[in-house]
Structures are given as structure tokens and as C-alpha cells.
User: Fold this.
Amino acid sequence: MRELTVRGVLLAEGIANAIVLTAKTAVGLSTGSIAVLGDAVHSLTDIANNCVAFVVAGRSIEPPDVEHPYGHRKFESLAVFGLATLLTVIAVELAIRAVGRIGEPVDLSRWGLAMMLAVLAVNVGVATWERWWARRLDSDLLRADAMHTLGDVFTTVAVIIGWQLAARGHAWLDAAFALLMAGL
Assistant:
């Protein structure tokens, strides 16, 4: 029962991350901000991590069997390796695009700023909710994921600041914050 609840929390978080991804992508594309698009890519990796955690939460607890005499915990390691490889490729691509856009102007958008502030509210809510479930279920997986989501809040705040400063005449900052996103 506990594993089903953990998986339910991860599924709900994955849906919230998909909404966040959509909002960030819309803002990034409409304003031309490579930093906001980089933050959207980061949200895409959050969804991938949710998927891995969802599968791992169910699969890794299975007892050893004939084909897996030592259990299924290695499945988690393989999944993490695959995600790390994908994240590295995406980060390099983002860095290349950011360098190519140094100094290019970005648009200031009130609705875009409102959307990004809504994204912050969603992430704070998800992190708080997930931390509550982590305590209730004594789940290290949910606790770690809640901390990761809270870290995303600070990343998005930095991206918003860079984008807003870039839109107000410091165009190089958008690419600088995109490079920061690539490094995360």
C-alpha cells in the first residue's frame, strides 16, 4: 500500500511538472529567452526523473526471482545512468545555443512574467505537499524529490531575474543564465 501511495504522489508531481514545462516553453518561445527555454528543458528532465522514480518505486522493491537472483535494485542504477546521459546531451546543446545567442535581445512580457510566477507557486506547492507525504510515509525518495523541487524554485527565480534584466537592456544576461542552466 505504501508503494502505491508513493507512486501516486510521484504521478501527481509528474502531471504538475508537465504543466510547468508547458508554461515555461510558452514563455520561452514567445519572449525569445534562451534562459527560460533552458529552465523548460530542466523541467523536461524533472518529468523524466518522475517517470524513473515512478517505475523504480514499484520495480525495485520486487523480491529476487530466477532471472534476478540479487533483486531489482540495479534497475534504478541503469535508469539513472540513462537519464544522466540524456541530461548531458541536452546541457551541451543548450550551452551551444546560449553562446550563439549572446547579446541577442529578448522580449519583456507581462503575461510571461505572470506565467513564470505561477510556475513558482506550483513548484512551492508541490514541494510542500510532497514533503508532507514524505514525512507521513517516511519515504526517502519523496523527501529527496521534494528537496529537488524546492531547488527548482530557486533556479526559476534566478532565470526570471536574468530574463527580466536581459529584457531591460542587459541582453547578455539571458545567455549567461542559459549557460548557468546548462551547468545545472
Observations:
- The chain has one domain: 2-183.
- The helical segments are 2-31, 34-59, 74-100, 110-137, 140-167, 172-183.
